[in-house]
Amino acid sequence: MDVAIHLPCVEGAVVYLAKTKDKPHTYTYDPPEGVAKSNIISEQHVVPIHDMRPLADGLALDTQGFLLTNAPTAVRDFYNEAELRDTYYAEAEALVKQATGASRVMVFDHTIRRREHGVEDRTPGTARQPVTRIYGDYTELSGPQRVRDLMGAEAETLLTRRFAIVNVWRPIRGPLTDAPLAVCDAGSLANGDLVPQDLIYRDRTGEIYGLTYNPAHRWYYAPDMRAEEALLLKCYDSAHDGRARFMPHTSFQDPNAPLDGLPRESIELRTLVFF
């Protein structure tokens, strides 16, 4: 029996990827004349998004692909780059190491998102915005490529062993009610649901996953997340042994959110995790 059907939930609109013949792509800048910035066709579905809090003690990165944890931080100013790198990176590496049992964890970047209503993500001169389309950060191809990009001469040796990419996501201010993060239980994905799509930069092309609709998908969120809490998200795992490997996610509009709630401010760190 699906335990999710007995949990509190909201009905939330999430944006899936429509199935098309051509490989989806998006340019992160204005492309050459005559080239479409994106050929992605979106498909919105209203789905039940369940409260993960009653299940929090039983969630696991290797099963659902996400977990919610208390994670107090010594950081006082998340907009201070030096404080992030000197304090928060070390905290996050220790948190992920404890959660995964890894032998080595390395933060390799971070993104701060600060909601401005009516602004699209990656608009020049504005803060990064919550992502409104379901996506997975890395694919079968781009996960190992990230190791090659970052680890230099060590990369090929590291790629002979299991590794993962885990994000650490938290509100900068809470309780967070605006544009919370919805996560899809990795165990509810079927073969073919995840579709590779190109993310084209001026100097390189990355690959992420979009998600096509399947009514079997199980969605969760953590209502009213506090700044002392963190979501760990498994975005890639090289193991092919039945454990969760990819976990798509998206922001959504909680229909129960107060109209005067604080605009979302959040930070996500990405970590390479070696076993």
Topology of helices and strands:
Blueprint lengths: L8 E9 L7 E3 L14 E10 L14 E5 L10 H20 L3 E11 L27 H10 L3 H4 L4 E9 L9 E4 L9 E7 L4 E7 L7 E3 L7 E9 L11 E3 L13 E10 L1
Strand content: 25-35%
Strand order of the largest sheet: 1-3-10-7-12
- Structural class, by secondary structure, is mainly beta
Number of domains: 1
User: How would the global form be characterised?
Assistant: globular
The average pLDDT score comes to 94
What fold name goes in the CATH topology slot? Answer: Jelly Rolls
CATH classification, class level: Mainly Beta
Q: Over all CA atoms, what is the radius of gyration? A: 18 Å
Describe this structure in words.
It is a single chain. The protein has helices at residues 81-100, 142-151, 155-158; strands spanning 9-17, 25-27, 42-51, 66-70, 104-114, 163-171, 181-184, 194-200, 205-211, 219-221, 229-237, 249-251, 265-274. By secondary structure, the protein is mainly beta. It has one domain (3-274): Jelly Rolls, CATH 2.60.120. 37% of the residues are buried. The mean pLDDT is 94.
Task: Give the gist of this structure.
This protein is mostly beta strands and 275 residues long. The chain contains 3 helices and 13 strands, in the order ββββαβααββββββββ.
